[in-house]
Amino acid sequence: MLEQRLVDYLIRKKRGTVRPVPDDFSFATPDRPAAGRFILPGITPDDDPGLTFEEANGRYDVAFEPPKPCLASRNIALKSTSSVRGHFVDVGRNRVLSFESVLEYLMGNILVANSDTILVEDQPPELAFEFDGEKRQTIDFRATNRRRFRIGYAVKAADQLERDMTMRKAKAIAAVHVPTFADKILVCTEFEITKDLGWNAVDINDARQERCQKDCDRVLEFLLGVGKPIEIWRVQDKLDDESGVWNALLCLHHDRLVQIERPDRRFTDAALVTPVTRH
Description:
It is built from nine helices and 13 strands. It is α+β, with helices and mostly antiparallel strands.
C-alpha cells in the first residue's frame, strides 16, 4: 500500500499536479453558507438554496436556517469499536444524514452528489417481512430520482453477505415491499461503492458547499473558449487559481455542464475536462 501511494505521488509530481501551498494562499469565497441557508421567513420556498451572503448583507428581515434534523427512524450509537459512524449534510436539500460505516458514508455521498436525485432518506422505517425467524429489517437508504423512481439500498461489506444472508433477506423484503416502499431493492458492497467513486462524490459535495458562481462562470467560459479536452492542472495554471478552479470544475461536473474524464477514477488522476453544453 505504501509503495503504491509513493508511485502515485511520483506520477502526480511528474505531471505537475503536486504543488506546494503558495505564499498568497487564500480560503474559498463561497456564495452561501457551507451548511444551512439564509431565508426570508414565510417567503423563501423549501427547495430554494436561500440568499447569498451578498444578498443577505445588511438586511434585518433575513433569518439563518440551520440544516434540518436527521429523519432516520432510529438513533445510531456514535461510539463503536468496529465502524465509523456520524452525520453529514445533504447539500442540495439542507438535511442531516446519518451513516454507520465508511461504506454507508460513501454510498450516501454518491446518492447526494447525483444531480438526478431529488430525495435521499437514511435509515427509513423498518420493513416487516418473514425470513428465518426475522420479522423486521431496516434498509440503509432510499433514494428518489427526478422520474419518481425509488430505490432502496442495503449497504454491506462483501465478506458479510453470506454470514448475514443479506441477498436472501433483500429478496424477501422485495417480495413484500416492491413497489409500495420502493420500486427496486439493491444490495451494494465495496465492489459497487468503490473508493474512487465514493471519494469523488465526497469531493463534489465538499465543492458544492463552497460553491462560488462567479468562479463557475469564469471556468466554464474558459473551457468553452478552449473547445477541446484539457488537463485540470492546465486550467488551474491558465486562470492562476488552483482551489477556485478545482471547486468550480466539480460544481460544473455536478451540474452536467462539464465532463471529467473517467469519473470512475479519482478526479485527481482523471485529469482531462471538457464542456458538454453552453449556457
